[in-house]
């Protein structure tokens, strides 16, 4: 009973109570009454009773206790109380079990710690033992060395104590090993026992635990052994028995075996990794570096990541994308940055290896011959080509419209195939040869039976001979009544062409293009000649060929007819062609068919050029676009440079260099003269001149002025043109200047002989050089008393100067050489007259001037010895 508040008396159980003031916002507050009620707990005695009641399943006793405590409680309350008692009992049991487990775990940990200590001790003992063994071995070796000198037995005797010392150490391990078993069975088993006892674990777990315990036990005596063994007599004989070097080695072996397999494998892997990683780190590449290179290509050549190369460039302050072209100097810095070595190559090196070497014999397969038709104007070249084309069985079957693409292939009824170059005449043939393309295998020389050998027939023969291409003579127009094939055959003898019928080896067929006579015989002759040549090519390689014709077509771009010479060209191939490059977009045959590929001796129109190639350009398939760009870039640069440095002497100088280097064995010349007699005299003089090392080879000789055909022939063979009292016509002059062909003019045979001799000896010393200054054409001739004949002229080229040297040319032939007498403009003497103006000229001591004659004006310049 208590006085709770304000003197009010209450019959209530005393409670811990009080008041708490709660403060809220805005200054409000509230007093709250707080009471603490005690929770009803089960008495300790009750718990004890409950525990005792467990085991016999004594729910009844619990119930008794509960009842004794509850007195007069309701049934529900009793049941509730009973449940509480049972829960309390359960908790007490759990607590007891947990404690027991805790105790077992603690003991196991203690045991493990003890075992670990024992293991440590054993390992230490082993190390000590190994050290002692090594020392003993050392001692023994020293002893041996000391006594190694005169007496062997002594050595043996002195070695004994050392051996004994070593033995003192080695048996320790043996003794320990031998003691392993009993100990494991006895003491160690004892030690393991508490763990087994204390742990409520399965038998298997117990066994596993006993394992390390037993292993650990073997170490214990070993650790102690070194101190004990020397004193124990029992160990002595065993020690002696094991005292050998092999025992020491065995000891080593044992220590090796002690390493786990996993450790060994790890060590091996580490070693292997080290070996593998070492060379990779040290790979220093030699990077071939052209004048310019793309970042990507540079990265490829260094075998580095493109991104890293870009980063390296950034470090150098060069912001370049992966496809950007950088110069060689920058690229060299980058290469140095990556630790590689740069190998600068000259531009010309890009051409190295572009054209592969000859193919293996076993890869070669027969290919059709490539034939060019040549002959004099109107002798029937075009008619013959048309007639041959009509004989094609394939186009007949297909019924397609044939197109002119510059070359076509004909299949005869016998199945034999022949490829014809569609542009007749030697001009195209030699122009192609001048560009380095050796396309033609056989030349068909067309001679009209009614007309015989004509000037262009001779030119054609010379061109074919210069190119060393065999000929097949086709005597055409035999259908005509006036045809005289025998006359043609005989005339050919004059030009070193001896046909079969005359006992030679040149095949000769009589045909009529118009009447389609004996065309099959001509094909037979071509096949025979082709067999003699044994024409073969490897079709299974990247394609190489030459451009026969090139044109720009609306909607198709640059289109070129390419004759494949070896390999097979496929759609998609990247190629270099002369200065241009491209990727094959399409291949079209002369019948307008789309081709997938083109093999050796097959002509095909190629679409996909990036620029316009020229006839005679080489066509080579390359590995990739980068190479194609590189080669074409180089060729374009070279071509631009050549435009600047081109001189008329270029080709000849190269020729002389080759003669002096011993590479060239002959000096090719083209002789043009004013009369047949002087031409023959020149040929005789020059051909006699040669020595064993080098001789003059006359490619072509004729009467008449120098024309374009002579220039192309000279260009193709790096020949010198000798003009004896003749001149080159303006077109030929322009061509010679453009192509760097040297023309030398002479009027005295001995001068020719002296110059050529000097050329061959490499000692040409022209003391005077002729500088051409201008041409004038005589428009009118005035006869003036006292003065003689004066020519009213127009200056057509260059300039004419007073006092200059002049030559008078009539039909490109020199008829006079001397000095200019007078040079007047409207009755006034002038110093010079320029191109496009009229003037009056007279010659000193010469008056045979005619309208239409040309006056060549030149100066003589003294020059130092050259060549
Ligand atoms: N009677 C006869 N006439 C022929 C024969 N072959 C060609 N002709 C004629 O000779 C002329 C010239 O023939 P082309 O084939 O044009 O001669 P070409 O050599 O190609 O002439 P160019 O193209 O000017 O060099 C034509 O009128 C033909 O009809 C033939 O076998 N017999």
Features:
alpha+beta, initiation factor, 24 helices, 25% strand, disordered N terminus, 7 domains, single chain, 6-stranded mixed β-sheet, binds guanosine-5'-triphosphate, Translation initiation factor IF-2, cytoplasm, 6-stranded antiparallel beta barrel, 867 residues, Arc Repressor Mutant, subunit A
Small-molecule binders = guanosine-5'-triphosphate
Number of helices: 24
The strand line-up of the biggest sheet is 11-12-10-13-14-15
Separation of the first and last Cα atoms:
148 Å
Helical content stands at: 40-55%
Looking at the structure, what is the overall shape?
elongated
Strand content: 25-35%
Structural features, described:
The chain folds into seven domains: 2-38, no CATH class; 42-234 and 244-274, no CATH class; 287-345, Arc Repressor Mutant, subunit A, CATH 1.10.10; 368-534, Rossmann fold (3-Layer(aba) Sandwich), CATH 3.40.50; 538-639, Translation factors (Elongation Factor Tu (Ef-tu), domain 3); 651-762, Translation initiation factor IF- 2, domain 3 (Rossmann fold, 3-Layer(aba) Sandwich); 767-863, Translation factors (Elongation Factor Tu (Ef-tu), domain 3). Helix content is 43%, strand content 25%. The strands form ten sheets. It has a six-stranded mixed β-sheet with strand order 11-12-10-13-14-15. Helix 15 (426-434) runs parallel beside helix 22 and helix 22 runs parallel beside helix 23. The longest helix has 73 residues, at 75-147. It is elongated, with a radius of gyration of 57 Å. The structure holds guanosine-5'-triphosphate. Guanosine-5'-triphosphate is lined by residues 375, 377-383, 424, 476-477, 479-480, 512-514. Guanosine-5'-triphosphate (GTP) binds next to helix 13. It holds the Pfam family IF2_N. Keywords: Cytoplasm, GTP-binding, Initiation factor, Nucleotide-binding, Protein biosynthesis. Its main location: cytoplasm. Residues 366-536 form the Tr-type G domain.
